[in-house]
Amino acid sequence: MRQLSKVFVAAVLATGLLTVPIHTSSAQVAGGAVQFRPHRAVYDITFDHATPGSGVADMSGRMVYEMTGTSCGEYAQNMRFVTRMTNQDGVAQVNDLRTSSFEEIAAHRLRFSSSQYENQKLAEAAQGSAAPGNGSSFVEVKLTKPAKKTVKLPSDIYFPIQHSIALVEAARAGQSLFTANLYDGSDRGEKFYETSAVIGPRATPGTIKMPAKLANGEQLDALSSWPIAIGYFEPGPARLDALPTYELSFRFYENGVSTRLYIDYGDFAIRGELRELTFLEEGKCAGQPTTGAPNPKR
Fold first, then answer.
1. Closest CA relative to residue 15, chosen from 208, 179, 254
2. Count helices and strands in the chain by DSSP H and E runs
3. How high is the mean pLDDT of the chain?
4. Is the peptide bond before 146 cis (omega within 30 degrees of 0)?
5. Number of domains the chain contains
6. pLDDT for residue 82 is more than 90
7. DSSP string covering 214-254, please?
8. For a designed S-S bond to 86, which of 58, 59, 131, 185 qualifies (C-beta 3.0 to 4.6 A apart)?
9. pLDDT, tens digit (0-9, with 9 covering 90-100), for 142-163
10. 3-class state of residue 2 by DSSP
11. 17: domain range?
12. Closest by Cα among 87, 103, 84, 80 to 12
């Protein structure tokens, strides 16, 4: 059951779909450089379906995501994802995944850490950093947890926020397909995914209305958005003939907020529904943002 929560959060982080850049005016969002708004988003997680033999019978939980950013292109992301999963024998397990990252866009640097708890006991942890290697011909990952190790990645790798910005740029340009190599430090920090994103038609401001009970939802009503579906593939020569490891879909708004999360892992699927949305103040450029997983209280 641990794999279910890891896959969902890895997909969320890898796409950057919850990434939210700094505050800007509506005019800038509509036509200028891509800049998102810092925010805190709470998603209710529900079980959608499973095929026979998947081992998953039910799931419920909550994910809390926070992002802070500065006009200097520095962004911190913190997420906590707590679920209660039940297998087909009726045995339940509480999973608690906590992740933090700090990304410097201009320098192409990423620092990350994650901890996975099962029934309140630490089951797995990862920590490290990624930055261009010698001559920038590759990206080098230096892991400190679960053990000291160095991993080399392709030089064209995207980090989460960088990828999120690129998705909006592609959507604005009218592109229907965007491919990228993606790395976020998940899977013990040792792997990346080849991704293929399909971008649907733009929904103009006012076309889609958020529920009246969602605070700040009217700010999303005033923005353009796109339906996006992303397939995650294991890298390698067999990529063209392979099915994706998992697929993620969501509606992506121009200010970086995502709604209607859905992930299909082949033999099971789950959903994430936005329940709370709070916009935050832009951070200061000097110093490092504080990182720490938010508490998903109901």
1. 179
2. 4, 15
3. 85
4. yes
5. 1
6. yes
7. STTHHHHHTS-EEEEEEEEE--SGGGGGSPPSEEEEEEEET
8. 58
9. 999 999 999 999 999 999 999 9
10. helix
11. 2-279
12. 80
- Residue 255 burial (10 A CB sphere; 0-12, 13-18, 19+): buried
- 29 found inside a domain: yes
- Report helix, strand or coil for 29: helix
Token pair 């997983």 is found at 293
Which structure tokens are listed for 217? 């939802």
Q: Is residue 179 part of a domain?
A: yes
DSSP conformation letters of 152-209:
EEETTEEPHHHHHHHHHHHHHTT-SEEEEEE--S-GGGT--EEEEEEE-PPBPTTSS-
Q: How far apart are CA 192 and CA 112, in angstroms?
A: 14
Is 285 part of any domain? no
Q: Measured between alpha carbons, how far is residue 11 from residues 185, 251, 263, 280, 287 in Å? A: 11, 15, 8, 24, 29
Residue 297 domain-assigned? Answer: no
For the record, the structure tokens of 276 come out as: 């709370």
Sign, CA torsion 223/202/230/150: negative
For residue 7 the two structure tokens come to: 């896959």
Q: Write out pLDDT tens, residues 213-250.
A: 999 999 999 999 999 999 999 887 665 667 888 899 99
Strand partners, 75: 69, 103
